[in-house]
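Dear support,

I submitted the protein below through the web form. The confirmation email said the job was done, but the results page showed an empty box. After a refresh the structure appeared. I'm attaching both so you can tell me whether what I see now is the final result or a partial one.
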Amino acid sequence: MERVTLPDGAEVLIRSLRPGDRAAYAEAMESMSARSRYLRFAAPKPRFSDKELDFLTQVDGDRHVALVALAGESQRGLGVARYVRVDDGTADVAIGITDAWQRRGLGRLLLSRLIDRARAAGLAALTATALAENEGSLRMLHGAGFMLTTRGGITNDYRLDLARDRVPA
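What the results page shows now:
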């Protein structure tokens, strides 16, 4: 577990998501506005099925990696950043931050830690799909070095090549 101070002085804890976080994850997602859930899942998402919650919280730490940010003492869920491998060298990234914690640097922080994990795991690239109207996600991805690869109408696809930044051994 890592204790981190955000630019506004707030302290959060970051650790790997655990299956035991299922109820807290569901509560955090339900606390998000309908708009925030739409921007995260690219579709209206009033509730999650048991199967969806299982997928989102039963990560294996290899093919499916998820980091959770928690409020200090309360351990309330504030956000999750994850990647899921789509082939041997690439993984798809997704990030969700509760409304009160958006625009505070938490998404960037989680994405940075996720990129570090992907590099350590030997991944060659990360990809992401974001709604074209999701300006916060677009700024976050661009700030982390993701490059636009495809404009697809309502969504844009991005890629971060991790191999190009590797230092030769």
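Response: this is the final, complete result; the empty box was a page-load delay. The longest strand covers residues 77-85.
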